[in-house]
Amino acid sequence: MSAEDQLHRRLRLAGTLLAGGLLTEAICLLWARPLAFIVLVGLAGLLVAAGIATYLYSLVSVRHPDSSADVIRLK
Amino acid sequence: MPHATALLVSLVLLSALLVALLAFRPSVTSTQGGKMFAFVVLFLLPLLCMAMGVNSEVERSKSTQFCLSCHIMEPYGHSLRVDDPNYLAAAHYQNHRVPADSACYTCHANYAMFGSVRAKLHGLRHVYIQYFWNPQPPLHLYDAYNNRECLHCHLGARSFEEGAVHNADPDLLAAVKSNQTSCISSGCHDTVHNTSQLNKMKFWKGAP
């Protein structure tokens, strides 16, 4: 699997988690019950945090094909 | 639905739509502009939406309507409309000594440092107990009611500081201020909600 495919796969996963979290948040905001607060913080918060973490990880984990050449040039 | 909530839900749904667009077409991130778009949509917007959502829910959880939405709290809601000035909660609610739309929170928030946080943690505990322990009325506070919550408003008020009953005993005010003598359980203002007596009471129909 190429680096670009790996990046896209992680971005897709991050997007899915974030979309799930945001949709859960929208439902909680419309559902004015005490349990909605728990679901918002517990479930939506968890999904959004996981989505953001996955996105940030995708930025630092995928090696660009030219990165080794850049290091050599810097040396 | 309040306008602020409607706007927030619209922002959250718009963000979810943009996130879904990126999830289906991650190739848009291959350009410089796409990378910036992804940063906004996958990082900044979700953080903003969550912060605004949690803030909105915290504010909503202070409302009287929110507290009374649990079935077990209904008698306490009725006690706010008792037509008897000796009922402490009713007298405060009906005469707007506390904001009517956040009556429960105003008296039951802890006014010490981090009191709001503590009130929210108590709220989470309420939900846990409601769903897992099947509580039965009458309900009891977790801690004895502290005079600090009354003094938050009454301290310095003329009716409190110069009231004839409060000054009949020269040591009383000092004892009340130091929480040694309770406002509500020392025989003075001890009719608070009294939900067990509600079936005998008349009720105020409310302002038009």
Notes on the protein architecture:
- The complex is a heterodimer of chains A (75) and B (208).
- Chain A has 75 residues and is an all-alpha fold.
- Chain A is built from three helices and no strands.
- Chain A has helices spanning 3-30, 34-61, 67-74.
- The longest helix of chain A has 28 residues, at 3-30.
- Chain A is elongated, with a radius of gyration of 18 Å.
- By secondary structure, chain B is mainly α.
- In chain B, 55% of the residues lie in helices and 0% in strands.
- The two termini of chain B are 22 Å apart.
- Chains A and B meet through helix 1 and helix 2 of A and helix 1, helix 2 and helix 7 of B.
Chain-averaged pLDDT of chain B? 90
Task: Summarize the biggest pleated sheet of chain A.
Answer: none
How far is the N terminus from the C terminus of chain A?
Answer: 29 Å
Portion in helices of chain B = 55-70%
Number of strands of chain B: 0
Query: What structural class results from the helix and strand content of chain B?
Result: mainly alpha
Mean of residue pLDDT of chain A?
A: 85
The number of helical segments of chain A is 3
| E-strand count of chain A | 0
Q: Give Rg of chain B in angstroms.
A: 24 Å
Strand percentage of chain B lies at under 5%
Greatest interface (CB-CB under 8 A), with counts per chain: A-B, 34 and 40 residues
- Radius of gyration of chain A over all CA atoms, rounded: 18 Å
Task: Give the number of helices of chain B.
Answer: 11
